[in-house]
Amino acid sequence: MPATRTPTQLTAVAARPLVSVVVPCLDEAAVIGETHRRLTAVLRGLPECEHEVVYVDDGSRDATWDRLTALAAADPRVRLVRLTRNFGHQPAVLAGLREASGDAVITIDADLQDPPGLIADMVERWRAGWPVVSARRTGRQGESRFKTGTAHVFYRLLAAVADHPVNLDTGDFRLLDREVVRTLTLLPESELYLRGAVCWAGFPETSLEYGRLPRPAGRTKYTLRKMAGLSRRGLLACSSAPARVPGAVGLAWLGGTALTSAVLRRPLPPAAWAFGGQAVLLGVLGEYLLLIHREVRGRPPYVVHQRWASGVPAPAELVAADVTASPEAWATGSVR
Ligand code: UDP
Ligand code: MG
Q1: Is 256's pLDDT higher than 70?
Q2: Residue 195 sits in which domain range?
Q3: Is it the case that residue 5 has pLDDT exceeding 80?
């Protein structure tokens, strides 16, 4: 998403705002101590900010939880959430967003591939008025060619077929203003693709660039299966295109069949028409599935950014009204 939009502070920044950092962890015992040391060094250096770090243990089987409880015992600014089993990276980040209470919330991986040093720049841009500060990966050291290549292709494919703008080469290392966190955590869907949902919400966004570093310890937890799952989740969450493939194929096939029979000046066999007809019918079903999918996931048709009357902004309570409805109100449809 372009960084050219004028930033607009959503809520007045408190004199000493609370900055939360959310860290999803799966079997990160080998690195978590060093990550915490580096994170707190950066957070302590933030001018006039309080901070908290929320670690989410996503069903680790190694000593991650023991390390985390030791960190929490030594530092009251550490909060922990332990999931019953491994639910996956996206649910773990969402759990952290729900737990965090900061005026700004930063999500970052546990393995130091995302440099904690960038957090200071993110907070500075947030204080300058940007509700979303994302981080675009310009390079990815220590990752296989297969992984970087497929990620490169995937982000571009997604951008080509998405129903709304999406960011290229941007993962879940970002800062979100409290108002954006509130919007995202009110979405009732369980198959949330966070990086797409942030773009869907549409708040003004600026992005920093960084080179992804190699892991200092441990191995990737994103297996091929999890990568495929994340791509599928992203594609289905951001794009109507997959459901529209049969209809498009059917119409093209029927058009081709009609053209061929006109050129040949004789009708083509019924089987040629039947394939196109069936694909078009599947396309009609696809449109209904899309409608049902949209209704079931229960996103609001719009998100209000600001209200303005008589030349002055409306009070913050009013500004936030359309995204601060209770989850029950969303579920019963009263905010649609
Ligand atoms: N992670 C998680 N649950 C999972 C997979 C990963 O909480 O099921 C965490 C992991 O501990 C790390 C972050 O998500 O903090 C990103 O995972 P990883 O570094 O393995 O992915 P990669 O950077 O290799 O894509
Ligand atoms: Mg990693």
Answers
A1: yes
A2: 18-222+303-332
A3: no
Ligand 1 binding pocket includes 58 (Cβ within 6 Å): yes
Residue among 151, 125, 161 nearest 220 (CA): 151
User: Are 67 and 185 part of one and the same domain?
Assistant: yes
* Mutation probe of ligand 1 site: the residue of 68, 89, 169 with most atoms within 8 A of C-beta: 89
* Mean pLDDT, range 216-233, rounded to an integer: 93
Measured from the Cα of 113, ligand 1's closest atom is 23
Residue 233 lies in a domain: no
pLDDT digits (tens, 9 = 90+) for 49-106: 999 999 999 999 999 999 999 999 999 999 999 999 999 999 999 999 999 999 999 9
Count of domains for the chain = 2
Residue 193 and residue 309 in one domain? yes
Task: Give distance in angstroms: CA of 67 to centre of ligand 2.
Answer: 19
DSSP-derived 3-state class of residue 56: strand
pTM to 2 decimals? Answer: 0.89
Is residue 109 lining ligand 1, measured as CB closer than 6 Å? Answer: yes
Please check whether residue 6 lies inside any domain of the structure.
no
Spatial separation of the C-alpha atoms in residues 297 and 333, rounded to whole Å = 11
Beta bridge partners of 135: 208
159 and 274 share one domain:
no
Tell whether the model's pLDDT for residue 2 goes beyond 50.
Answer: no
Same domain, 142 and 278: no
> Nearest residue CA, atom 13 of ligand 1?
109
Cβ(88) to ligand 1 under 6 A? Answer: yes
Is residue 150 in a domain?
A: yes
327 and 215 share one domain: yes
Q: Is residue 157 part of a domain?
A: yes
Of all protein residues, the one whose alpha carbon is nearest to atom 17 of ligand 1 is: 221
Q: What is the rounded end-to-end Cα distance, in angstroms, of the chain?
A: 26
Residue 286 belongs to what H/E stretch? Answer: helix 270-297
Residue-averaged pLDDT of the chain: 90
Nearest ligand 1 atom to the CA of 92 is: 7
CB atoms within 10 A of CB 61: 11
Confirm or reject: Cβ of 113 under 6 Å from ligand 1: yes
Residue 270 class from Cβ within 10 Å (0-12 exposed, 13-18 middle, 19+ buried)? exposed
87 lines ligand 1 (CB under 6 A): no
Lowest-pLDDT range, 5-9, 101-105, 160-164, 302-306?
5-9
